[in-house]
Design brief:
By secondary structure, the chain is α+β, with helices and mostly antiparallel strands. The chain folds into two domains: 6-141 and 434-518, Orthogonal Bundle (GROEL, domain 1); 165-406 and 539-572, GroEL (3-Layer(bba) Sandwich), CATH 3.50.7. The chain contains 17 helices and 21 strands. The protein has helices spanning 10-29, 61-68, 73-89, 93-112, 117-138, 147-158, 164-181, 265-287, 301-309, 320-330, 383-405, 415-431, 435-456, 461-473, 500-518, 540-556, 565-571, and strands at 6-8, 39-43, 54-58, 140-141, 182-185, 188-191, 196-202, 210-212, 214-218, 229-238, 292-295, 313-315, 334-335, 347-357, 360-368, 374-380, 408-411, 479-482, 487-490, 497-499, 523-525. Helix 4 packs parallel to helix 15 (500-518) and helix 5 packs across helix 12.
Length: 572
């Protein structure tokens, strides 16, 4: 072990890890449920002011953890857990992290009472296995996905992120989008989220958001007097620059070009040659029959002027994800060599038009060859609100997608957690031995989720939870907390649907994280070998001087290998 390393014993390590994870989980608790609070997170990107700070106002679990940027290992572990849950099912992150905190808190109490951590893990594992059986017995298998059912699933997923007065309108947009983007397969319905585009506009009201049957993309280039409407569009997808610098052996890495002009008259010759080459490339594109040109690279001004004179609408420097999705929606092919551009490689769309909204232009592709392309334009007067609305819509789409994969649902409002906890306690009595202590602890952790729903709704859990438990014992297994009425309600009658895949993913991810943390016995911090000089922050003047010194070195590194064949003639 290195000389300068430090080692912390098993008990201290475990206690420290549990304390840190519990603190992070408690940070998420007030945002749990539809009435949960939001977090205002500001990240200082650069103390010198070279990069602007970023601010987020959100109740989204993954966004909170990701933007917090923990440096402590436990924070990083929980962030990775949140990312896994978010990537897998798109929802349930807060449930996962809060459950991790509650399970660790219960585990610490058992360990303090003399129970071995391995016994706690074994008990938790048995509880998870039993929960799979309990969930299967409690779940309802959906057979028909009508609009009302899809809307209820979307409403449950979005309630914590969309303002109440716009919730119904946004849910209707989600349903329209799902109906357009989903397709029937042998086992039911399938939803590919790559067929859906969400655009945001900081202008207007959230209730003015709308569904678009096609694809929307922010218009990324100057107009150059181009037309703003093309019917029966034939779209060319060019994945190379349309300018003089891309002639010869083109490299997709975007190599630099070094040009040396020794005589004054060569300047005009070079400029004319540059325009001539770009013009020939534009003419070759137009000869394919394309009336819309899209490139993720630059398009020379001479080419843009030619396109404008021929009534061709051109887009330059489009982001590759947008380019790929438009290509998929319209059925075109990517072309790098212009000799490969043929009428068969063009995508088709019934209508492409440009619309200006609040000093920002958007391109709309309507009637695409792929009928599954769908878009939602979210509008709001606040960037924070429209960003949070986007996260809510993504949660709703993910919840519907997971329900299509596994058409089983349970009912929310804490009803599932209370019923599952009750059955776990009965199971613990059957198990006996010390494992029952850990199983009972798992049940208590589940009940704590219902307690949080009560608190965040503004009610006293002592007034609500005992009655919920009593009614569950009487067989009313779907009774839970109605946060809007601050009272008890039947979640099945209120249509509070939660996908089983999301619920099981949250529970299993929480258990796996807890097991990993409880199995850590030592914490070793090793310093780098060798003496390290203390870091000294540079002043703004020193940084500016370094940048000025670097410019000549960068220019010297630009060698003649980047000179294209046609340019060598101009240098002579």
């Amino acid at each position: 072990m290195p000389k300068d390393s430090t080692q912390i014993g098993a008990k201290e390590t475990r206690t420290s890890n549990i304390s840190l994870a519990t603190v992070i989980a408690e940070m998420m608790e007030r945002g749990f449920g539809p009435k949960g609070a939001k977090k205002l997170i500001t990240n200082v990107r650069d103390p010198l002011g070279w990069a602007s700070d970023t601010t987020n106002l959100t109740s989204d679990g993954y966004t909170i953890l990701n933007e917090t940027s923990f440096k402590q290992p436990i924070g990083k572990i929980l962030t990775e857990t949140a990312k896994t849950v978010n990537d897998e099912v798109g929802d349930g992150v807060k449930t996962t992290i809060i459950l991790v905190g509650k399970l660790l808190d219960q585990a610490q109490r058992l360990i303090d009472e003399g129970l071995h951590p391995r016994t706690v893990i074994d008990g938790y594992q048995k509880a998870c296995q039993k929960l799979d059986e309990i969930t299967d017995s409690l779940s309802v298998h959906l057979k028909v996905f009508d609009d009302a059912l899809l809307k209820n699933i979307a409403l449950t997923a979005m309630r914590s992120k969309i303002p109440y007065n716009s919730l119904d309108h946004v849910a209707n947009l989600v349903v329209k989008t799902v109906n357009r983007a989903s397709e029937e397969n042998g086992a039911g319905r399938k939803l590919d989220l790559a067929n859906i585009k969400i655009e945001k506009q900081v202008n207007g009201l959230l209730s003015q958001s709308y569904f678009f049957d096609g694809w929307i993309v922010a218009y990324p280039t100057s107009r150059y007097g181009m037309i703003d409407r093309v019917e029966n569009a034939r779209i060319a997808f060019i994945t190379r620059p349309v300018d003089a610098f891309s002639m010869g052996d083109y490299s997709a890495k975007g190599d630099f070009v070094k040009i040396e002009v020794t005589k004054k008259e060569h300047v005009n010759a070079f400029s004319e040659k540059e325009k001539s080459i770009a013009l020939k490339m534009a003419q070759k594109i137009a000869a394919s029959g394309a009336n819309v040109v899209i490139s993720n690279w630059n398009i020379d001004e001479a080419a843009l002027e030619y396109f404008s004179s021929k009534g061709i609408l051109a887009f330059k420097r489009l982001l590759m994800p947008d380019l790929s999705r438009i290509q998929k929606a319209t059925g075109g092919l990517f072309v790098e060599r212009l000799d490969d551009l043929t009428p068969e490689s063009l995508g088709t769309s019934k209508l492409v038009y440009i619309e200006k909204m609040n000093d920002k232009e958007y391109a709309f592709f309507k009637g695409c060859q792929n009928p599954k392309a769908a878009s939602i334009m979210l509008r709001s007067g606040s960037a924070f609100l429209v960003d949070e609305a986007e996260r809510g819509v993504k949660d709703a789409l993910s919840a519907i997608k997971e329900t299509f994969k596994d058409p089983r649902v349970v009912f929310g409002g804490g009803a599932f957690e209370v019923e599952a906890a009750s059955q776990l306690k009965t199971y613990a009595q059957e198990i006996g031995k010390r494992d029952q202590l850990a199983i009972n602890a798992f049940a208590k952790a589940l009940e704590e989720l219902c307690v949080l729903l009560c608190r965040n709704a503004g009610t006293n859990p002592l007034d609500i939870l005992p009655e919920i438990k009593t009614r569950h014992e009487q067989g009313e297994k779907w009774v839970g907390i109605d946060p809007y009425k601050r009272n008890i309600g039947n979640m099945k009658d209120l249509n509070v649907y939660e996908p089983v895949r999301v619920k099981l993913q949250a529970i299993n991810a929480a258990f796996e994280t807890v097991e990993m943390l409880l199995r850590i016995d030592y914490s070793i911090t090793a310093k780098l070998s060798g003496e390290k000089k203390p870091h000294k922050e540079k002043t703004a003047e020193e940084i500016e001087k370094l940048e000025q010194d670097m410019i000549p070195k960068v220019l010297e590194q630009t060698s003649d290998k980047y000179v294209q064949p046609w340019e060598k003639g101009l240098q002579k």
